[in-house]
Design goal:
73% of the residues lie in helices and 0% in strands. It has 153 residues and is mainly α.
Length: 153
């Protein structure tokens, strides 16, 4: 296997960050690898996560950082918000390029057309069709908003 897994890439980056004494990067990668390990041992039996599953864990961790930064900003705790945003920047290096609003709208429009959805009751059908096309390149909230806009319009 010549291609390294995403988990191996994270472990290598953690070692590198520790050597460079980059505490933010090392701490963020350590927490992310812990989340990956927790996901691997959850359920009935331990298993090795695929790259797509590791990507999902990283996306979830990034979302946590984004929400925490917003909450800290709203509470007037800018130093804590800055720390969360720094961690988010580290995680974004391992995520695929996010879709622009125009690209997301185009994918949603295609899914609406393909599924034959005519209104809000078919939102779940459209969401199910769009999710594999997006594959980690947009958050669920953005996708849902685009689907609602497409079905309402």
């Amino acid at each position: 296997m010549t291609e390294t897994s995403l988990k191996t890439t994270l472990q290598t980056a953690l070692t590198e960050a520790m050597r460079e004494r980059d505490q933010v990067r090392a701490g963020t990668l350590r927490m992310t690898l812990t989340a990956v390990t927790n996901e691997e041992v959850s359920g009935r039996e331990a298993r090795e996560l695929s790259d797509d599953e590791v990507l999902r864990v990283i996306t979830k961790e990034a979302k946590k950082r984004r929400e925490a930064a917003t909450a800290y900003q709203d509470a007037g705790r800018s130093e804590l918000a800055d720390r969360e945003l720094a961690e988010l920047t580290v995680l974004e290096a391992y995520l695929p390029q996010q879709l622009s609003d125009e690209e997301l709208d185009a994918l949603v429009a295609q899914a609406v057309q393909d599924s034959g959805a005519t209104g809000m009751p078919q939102m779940g059908l459209v969401m199910k069709a769009v999710q594999p096309l997006v594959a980690g390149r947009a958050e669920g909230g953005r996708i849902a908003a685009a689907v609602k806009k497409a079905l309402a319009g």
